[in-house]
Amino acid sequence: MSTVLITGATSGIGKACAYLFAEQNYNLILCGRRSEKLNELEKELSKQTKVHTLQFDVRFREDVFKAIESIPSEFKAIDILINNAGNAHGLHSIQEGSLDDWDAMIDGNVKGLLYVSKAIIPTMIDRNQGFIVNIGSIAGKEVYLNGNVYCASKFAVNALNKSMRLDLNQYNIRVSGIHPGLVETEFSDVRFKGDSERAKQVYKGYKALQAEDIADIIHFVVTRPYHVNIEDLIVYPTAQASATMLNKNEN
Ligand code: NDP
Ligand code: 8X3
Q1: How far is the CA of 182 from the centre of ligand 2 (A)?
Q2: Is the model's pLDDT at 251 over the cut of 90?
Q3: Which keywords does this chain's UniProt record carry (predicted)?
Protein backbone atom coordinates (compact mmCIF):
# COMPACT_ATOMS: atom_id res chain seq x y z
CA MET A 1 0.00 0.00 0.00
CA SER A 2 1.20 3.53 -0.76
CA THR A 3 2.44 5.86 1.96
CA VAL A 4 1.56 9.54 2.15
CA LEU A 5 3.22 12.12 4.39
CA ILE A 6 1.03 15.13 5.14
CA THR A 7 2.37 18.27 6.83
CA GLY A 8 -0.17 20.40 8.67
CA ALA A 9 -2.38 17.36 9.24
CA THR A 10 -3.84 18.59 12.54
CA SER A 11 -6.39 20.90 10.98
CA GLY A 12 -8.16 22.11 7.83
CA ILE A 13 -6.96 20.86 4.45
CA GLY A 14 -4.31 18.55 5.89
CA LYS A 15 -6.73 16.91 8.29
CA ALA A 16 -9.30 16.41 5.52
CA CYS A 17 -6.54 14.77 3.45
CA ALA A 18 -5.69 12.49 6.38
CA TYR A 19 -9.30 11.27 6.57
CA LEU A 20 -9.67 10.81 2.83
CA PHE A 21 -6.36 8.99 2.35
CA ALA A 22 -7.14 6.78 5.38
CA GLU A 23 -10.44 5.83 3.76
CA GLN A 24 -8.49 4.87 0.64
CA ASN A 25 -6.16 2.70 2.76
CA TYR A 26 -2.95 4.67 2.33
CA ASN A 27 -0.40 4.39 5.13
CA LEU A 28 -0.28 7.78 6.78
CA ILE A 29 2.52 9.85 8.25
CA LEU A 30 0.80 12.80 9.87
CA CYS A 31 2.75 15.90 10.93
CA GLY A 32 2.00 19.01 12.94
CA ARG A 33 2.98 20.87 16.10
CA ARG A 34 -0.07 20.09 18.26
CA SER A 35 0.58 16.65 19.71
CA GLU A 36 -2.89 16.29 21.25
CA LYS A 37 -4.42 16.71 17.78
CA LEU A 38 -1.95 14.22 16.31
CA ASN A 39 -2.81 11.72 19.05
CA GLU A 40 -6.55 12.12 18.37
CA LEU A 41 -5.99 11.55 14.66
CA GLU A 42 -3.81 8.52 15.27
CA LYS A 43 -6.42 6.98 17.55
CA GLU A 44 -9.24 7.62 15.10
CA LEU A 45 -7.54 6.74 11.82
CA SER A 46 -5.64 3.70 13.10
CA LYS A 47 -9.00 1.94 12.98
CA GLN A 48 -8.73 2.14 9.18
CA THR A 49 -5.07 2.11 8.27
CA LYS A 50 -1.48 2.30 9.55
CA VAL A 51 -0.71 5.69 11.05
CA HIS A 52 2.56 7.20 12.23
CA THR A 53 2.67 10.72 13.67
CA LEU A 54 5.55 13.20 13.76
CA GLN A 55 5.42 16.25 15.97
CA PHE A 56 7.67 19.06 14.76
CA ASP A 57 7.67 22.69 13.71
CA VAL A 58 8.59 22.98 10.02
CA ARG A 59 10.50 26.20 10.77
CA PHE A 60 13.23 24.40 12.71
CA ARG A 61 15.41 22.58 10.27
CA GLU A 62 17.15 20.24 12.72
CA ASP A 63 13.78 19.14 14.10
CA VAL A 64 12.51 18.51 10.58
CA PHE A 65 15.46 16.28 9.65
CA LYS A 66 15.44 14.48 13.01
CA ALA A 67 11.72 13.76 12.72
CA ILE A 68 11.97 12.46 9.18
CA GLU A 69 15.02 10.32 10.01
CA SER A 70 13.03 8.78 12.88
CA ILE A 71 10.33 7.37 10.56
CA PRO A 72 10.08 3.59 11.13
CA SER A 73 11.18 1.37 8.27
CA GLU A 74 7.67 0.23 7.37
CA PHE A 75 6.75 3.87 6.58
CA LYS A 76 10.06 4.95 5.04
CA ALA A 77 9.08 4.49 1.39
CA ILE A 78 7.11 7.71 1.02
CA ASP A 79 5.15 7.76 -2.23
CA ILE A 80 3.38 11.07 -1.77
CA LEU A 81 4.49 14.18 0.11
CA ILE A 82 1.77 16.79 0.68
CA ASN A 83 3.51 20.06 1.56
CA ASN A 84 0.51 21.68 3.20
CA ALA A 85 1.67 23.19 6.53
CA GLY A 86 1.40 26.95 6.49
CA ASN A 87 -0.59 29.93 7.57
CA ALA A 88 -1.03 33.66 7.20
CA HIS A 89 -0.13 35.76 10.24
CA GLY A 90 -1.73 39.19 10.27
CA LEU A 91 -3.19 41.30 7.47
CA HIS A 92 -1.36 44.61 7.57
CA SER A 93 0.20 47.05 5.15
CA ILE A 94 3.89 46.68 4.46
CA GLN A 95 4.57 49.75 6.63
CA GLU A 96 2.61 48.35 9.57
CA GLY A 97 3.39 44.64 9.39
CA SER A 98 5.12 42.87 12.27
CA LEU A 99 8.56 41.37 11.80
CA ASP A 100 7.53 38.34 13.86
CA ASP A 101 4.58 37.72 11.54
CA TRP A 102 6.85 38.05 8.52
CA ASP A 103 9.32 35.57 9.97
CA ALA A 104 6.54 33.11 10.79
CA MET A 105 5.26 33.21 7.19
CA ILE A 106 8.59 33.10 5.40
CA ASP A 107 10.03 30.49 7.77
CA GLY A 108 6.89 28.34 7.86
CA ASN A 109 5.44 28.61 4.38
CA VAL A 110 8.69 28.76 2.40
CA LYS A 111 11.65 27.49 4.39
CA GLY A 112 9.56 24.82 6.14
CA LEU A 113 8.38 23.48 2.79
CA LEU A 114 11.98 23.45 1.59
CA TYR A 115 13.31 21.63 4.67
CA VAL A 116 10.65 18.90 4.52
CA SER A 117 11.17 18.48 0.77
CA LYS A 118 14.96 18.36 1.16
CA ALA A 119 14.63 15.61 3.77
CA ILE A 120 12.31 13.46 1.66
CA ILE A 121 13.39 14.00 -1.95
CA PRO A 122 16.53 11.78 -1.68
CA THR A 123 14.34 8.80 -0.77
CA MET A 124 12.21 9.46 -3.85
CA ILE A 125 15.28 9.82 -6.06
CA ASP A 126 16.61 6.49 -4.73
CA ARG A 127 13.33 4.81 -5.65
CA ASN A 128 13.02 6.67 -8.98
CA GLN A 129 9.43 7.54 -8.13
CA GLY A 130 7.39 9.87 -5.97
CA PHE A 131 4.81 12.61 -5.91
CA ILE A 132 5.12 16.02 -4.28
CA VAL A 133 1.99 18.13 -3.88
CA ASN A 134 2.66 21.73 -2.92
CA ILE A 135 -0.23 23.67 -1.44
CA GLY A 136 0.12 27.22 -2.73
CA SER A 137 -2.74 29.70 -2.87
CA ILE A 138 -4.39 32.16 -5.18
CA ALA A 139 -2.31 34.54 -3.04
CA GLY A 140 0.66 33.07 -4.89
CA LYS A 141 -0.84 34.05 -8.23
CA GLU A 142 -2.22 37.52 -7.47
CA VAL A 143 -1.35 39.94 -4.67
CA TYR A 144 -4.04 41.71 -2.67
CA LEU A 145 -4.09 44.70 -0.33
CA ASN A 146 -2.23 43.98 2.93
CA GLY A 147 -1.43 40.46 1.72
CA ASN A 148 2.20 41.44 1.00
CA VAL A 149 4.36 38.89 2.86
CA TYR A 150 1.80 36.07 2.86
CA CYS A 151 1.42 36.59 -0.90
CA ALA A 152 5.20 36.67 -1.30
CA SER A 153 5.50 33.39 0.58
CA LYS A 154 2.93 31.77 -1.72
CA PHE A 155 4.53 33.26 -4.86
CA ALA A 156 7.65 31.48 -3.61
CA VAL A 157 5.73 28.22 -3.26
CA ASN A 158 4.49 28.67 -6.84
CA ALA A 159 8.06 29.20 -8.06
CA LEU A 160 9.35 26.24 -6.06
CA ASN A 161 6.62 24.04 -7.46
CA LYS A 162 7.69 24.86 -11.01
CA SER A 163 11.38 24.53 -10.09
CA MET A 164 10.86 21.12 -8.51
CA ARG A 165 9.22 19.91 -11.72
CA LEU A 166 12.31 20.94 -13.67
CA ASP A 167 14.91 19.64 -11.22
CA LEU A 168 13.17 16.35 -10.46
CA ASN A 169 12.05 15.59 -13.99
CA GLN A 170 15.00 13.24 -14.58
CA TYR A 171 14.01 11.18 -11.53
CA ASN A 172 10.47 10.34 -12.59
CA ILE A 173 9.04 12.36 -9.69
CA ARG A 174 5.71 14.07 -10.19
CA VAL A 175 5.12 17.56 -8.74
CA SER A 176 1.81 19.42 -8.53
CA GLY A 177 0.79 22.79 -7.15
CA ILE A 178 -2.74 23.28 -5.82
CA HIS A 179 -3.80 26.90 -5.37
CA PRO A 180 -7.05 27.36 -3.47
CA GLY A 181 -9.09 30.50 -2.98
CA LEU A 182 -11.06 30.93 0.25
CA VAL A 183 -11.29 27.70 2.24
CA GLU A 184 -13.14 27.63 5.56
CA THR A 185 -10.58 26.28 8.03
CA GLU A 186 -8.66 27.57 11.04
CA PHE A 187 -6.72 29.73 8.58
CA SER A 188 -8.48 33.02 9.45
CA ASP A 189 -8.43 32.27 13.19
CA VAL A 190 -4.68 32.00 12.90
CA ARG A 191 -4.37 35.04 10.62
CA PHE A 192 -6.40 37.16 13.07
CA LYS A 193 -4.71 35.64 16.14
CA GLY A 194 -7.76 34.05 17.70
CA ASP A 195 -10.26 36.86 16.89
CA SER A 196 -12.92 34.33 15.96
CA GLU A 197 -15.58 36.96 15.20
CA ARG A 198 -13.35 38.54 12.57
CA ALA A 199 -12.40 35.11 11.27
CA LYS A 200 -16.06 34.09 10.90
CA GLN A 201 -16.77 37.22 8.83
CA VAL A 202 -14.34 36.00 6.17
CA TYR A 203 -16.61 33.06 5.35
CA LYS A 204 -19.97 34.77 5.85
CA GLY A 205 -22.46 35.55 3.06
CA TYR A 206 -21.35 32.91 0.56
CA LYS A 207 -20.36 29.26 0.45
CA ALA A 208 -16.61 29.02 0.91
CA LEU A 209 -14.60 26.01 -0.21
CA GLN A 210 -14.44 23.31 2.45
CA ALA A 211 -11.25 21.49 3.41
CA GLU A 212 -12.81 18.28 2.03
CA ASP A 213 -13.18 19.90 -1.42
CA ILE A 214 -9.43 20.47 -1.57
CA ALA A 215 -8.63 17.00 -0.20
CA ASP A 216 -10.83 15.52 -2.91
CA ILE A 217 -8.94 17.48 -5.60
CA ILE A 218 -5.57 16.45 -4.17
CA HIS A 219 -6.70 12.84 -4.20
CA PHE A 220 -7.81 13.20 -7.82
CA VAL A 221 -4.46 14.71 -8.80
CA VAL A 222 -2.38 11.95 -7.19
CA THR A 223 -4.50 9.11 -8.54
CA ARG A 224 -4.02 9.92 -12.24
CA PRO A 225 -2.02 7.32 -14.20
CA TYR A 226 1.73 7.70 -13.61
CA HIS A 227 2.35 9.32 -17.00
CA VAL A 228 -0.06 12.17 -16.13
CA ASN A 229 1.17 15.15 -14.07
CA ILE A 230 -1.18 18.06 -13.39
CA GLU A 231 1.35 20.85 -12.82
CA ASP A 232 -0.90 23.56 -11.51
CA LEU A 233 -4.46 23.83 -10.38
CA ILE A 234 -6.35 26.92 -9.21
CA VAL A 235 -9.64 26.40 -7.40
CA TYR A 236 -12.08 29.03 -6.19
CA PRO A 237 -15.42 28.87 -4.46
CA THR A 238 -18.07 29.69 -7.07
CA ALA A 239 -18.73 33.02 -5.34
CA GLN A 240 -15.11 34.12 -5.77
CA ALA A 241 -13.78 35.35 -9.12
CA SER A 242 -10.35 36.59 -8.08
CA ALA A 243 -8.34 37.28 -4.93
CA THR A 244 -10.32 40.49 -4.51
CA MET A 245 -13.68 39.79 -6.15
CA LEU A 246 -16.20 37.97 -3.99
CA ASN A 247 -19.95 37.87 -4.52
CA LYS A 248 -21.09 38.16 -0.90
CA ASN A 249 -24.65 38.43 0.28
CA GLU A 250 -24.28 41.05 2.99
CA ASN A 251 -27.78 40.51 4.50
P1 NDP B 1 -5.29 25.59 9.08
O2 NDP B 1 -4.86 26.71 9.96
O3 NDP B 1 -6.59 24.94 9.36
O4 NDP B 1 -4.16 24.46 9.04
C5 NDP B 1 -2.79 24.79 8.99
C6 NDP B 1 -1.99 23.54 9.31
O7 NDP B 1 -0.60 23.84 9.18
C8 NDP B 1 -2.23 23.06 10.73
O9 NDP B 1 -2.31 21.66 10.73
C10 NDP B 1 -0.98 23.53 11.47
O11 NDP B 1 -0.71 22.58 12.49
C12 NDP B 1 0.08 23.45 10.37
N13 NDP B 1 1.17 24.38 10.60
C14 NDP B 1 1.14 25.73 10.55
N15 NDP B 1 2.34 26.25 10.84
C16 NDP B 1 3.15 25.19 11.10
C17 NDP B 1 4.51 25.08 11.49
N18 NDP B 1 5.28 26.15 11.67
N19 NDP B 1 5.04 23.84 11.67
C20 NDP B 1 4.26 22.74 11.49
N21 NDP B 1 2.97 22.78 11.12
C22 NDP B 1 2.43 24.00 10.94
O23 NDP B 1 -5.27 26.19 7.60
P24 NDP B 1 -5.54 25.52 6.17
O25 NDP B 1 -5.88 24.11 6.26
O26 NDP B 1 -6.45 26.43 5.46
O27 NDP B 1 -4.10 25.72 5.52
C28 NDP B 1 -3.37 24.67 4.92
C29 NDP B 1 -2.57 25.25 3.75
O30 NDP B 1 -3.48 25.76 2.78
C31 NDP B 1 -1.66 26.41 4.13
O32 NDP B 1 -0.44 26.26 3.44
C33 NDP B 1 -2.42 27.63 3.64
O34 NDP B 1 -1.57 28.70 3.33
C35 NDP B 1 -3.08 27.05 2.39
N36 NDP B 1 -4.23 27.77 1.88
C37 NDP B 1 -5.32 28.01 2.68
C38 NDP B 1 -6.41 28.68 2.17
C39 NDP B 1 -7.60 29.05 3.00
O40 NDP B 1 -8.37 29.95 2.59
N41 NDP B 1 -7.84 28.41 4.13
C42 NDP B 1 -6.45 29.10 0.76
C43 NDP B 1 -5.24 28.82 0.04
C44 NDP B 1 -4.20 28.15 0.57
P45 NDP B 1 -0.16 22.88 13.95
O46 NDP B 1 -0.75 24.17 14.40
O47 NDP B 1 -0.59 21.69 14.76
O48 NDP B 1 1.30 22.93 13.75
C1 8X3 C 1 -5.54 31.82 1.54
C2 8X3 C 1 -6.54 32.51 0.69
O3 8X3 C 1 -7.28 34.78 -0.15
O4 8X3 C 1 -6.80 34.58 2.21
O5 8X3 C 1 -4.36 31.57 0.88
O6 8X3 C 1 -5.03 34.59 0.63
S7 8X3 C 1 -6.39 34.19 0.86
Answers
A1: 6
A2: no
A3: Oxidoreductase
